[in-house]
Write a structure and sequence with these properties.
The complex is a heterodimer of chains A (115) and B (113).
Chain A: E1 5-7, E2 10-13, E3 19-24, E4 31-37, E5 44-50, E6 53-56, E7 65-68, E8 75-79, E9 88-95, E10 105-106, E11 110-114
Parallel strand pairs in A: 2-11
Antiparallel strand pairs in A: 1-3, 3-8, 4-5, 4-9, 5-6, 7-8, 9-10, 9-11
Chain B: E1 3-6, E2 11-14, E3 19-21, E4 23-26, E5 32-38, E6 44-50, E7 56-59, E8 62-65, E9 75-77, E10 86-93, E11 102-103, E12 107-112
Parallel strand pairs in B: 2-12
Antiparallel strand pairs in B: 1-4, 3-9, 5-6, 5-10, 7-8, 8-9, 10-11, 10-12
Classes of the chains: A mainly beta (115), B mainly beta (113).
């Protein structure tokens, strides 16, 4: 069974440029998460989807970040415009449901460098 | 609020040494507790979990026991191998956050032959 797929794996851009990350969750997983992982820190949730609905986006900086999961399968996270402080690893995860205790499966992440 | 505190690394051990990585938590509800591992160049993987007090999670020789009285979930392994070199993250979920994981900062383990 294929795991969570993310692309690109690495991205280098200049500040003020836009950038987009793509995630394809494990087949059949209704819940999709985007996490931000700064260097030397644990991941922090940005947004959680149940099917195509964003049910928790309280930590998403909505002035520059946006996300979509139009058909309830794959998802795109966008930053526009990027700032130097956005340099981090962006992780996507999926699970069969958002219930407490349910295992989340993580993709390899996209490492973003903003110059 | 909800948070996880784990011992700072890096931790360097010789092969076959005993490992303990401390993890304590603060939670407003009744959390489920997890240890995730991140091997070099790979994504986070669930190592073990426990969903209620006194449960012991175990996998690949690693163990952790959910201690409600001390709000702890320490990770242990009796004899580490070079292949255990990775970053280990303690995490929790609580009902109010509907399954959203809250992670500690991670502890990097290096095992020398």
């Amino acid at each position: 069974e294929a795991g969570v797929v993310q692309s690109p794996r690495y991205k280098i851009i200049e500040k003020k440029q836009p950038v987009a990350f793509w995630c394809n969750p494990i087949s059949g997983h209704n819940t999709l998460y985007w996490y931000l992982q700064n260097l030397g820190q644990g991941p922090e949730l940005l947004i959680r989807y149940e099917n195509e609905e964003a049910v928790d986006d309280s930590q998403l900086p909505k002035d520059r970040f946006s996300a979509e999961r139009l058909k309830g399968v794959d998802s795109t996270l966008k930053i526009q415009p990027a700032e130097l402080g956005d340099s981090a690893v962006y992780l996507c995860a999926s699970s069969t449901s958002g219930l407490v205790g349910n295992e989340q499966f993580f993709g390899p992440g996209t490492r973003l460098t903003v110059l | 609020g909800n948070s996880v505190t784990q011992m700072e690394g890096p931790v360097t051990l010789s092969e076959e040494a005993f490992l303990t990585i401390n993890c304590t938590y603060t939670a407003t509800g009744y959390p489920s507790l997890f240890w995730y591992v991140q091997y070099p160049g790979e994504g986070l993987q669930l190592l073990l979990k426990a969903t209620k007090a006194d449960d012991k999670g175990s996998n690949k020789g690693f163990e952790a026991t959910y201690r409600k009285e001390t709000t702890s979930f320490h990770l242990e392994k009796g004899s580490v191998q070079v292949s255990d070199s990775a970053v280990y993250f303690c995490a929790l979920t609580v009902g109010g956050s509907q399954g959203n994981l809250i992670f500690g900062k991670g502890t990097k383990l290096s095992v020398k032959p």
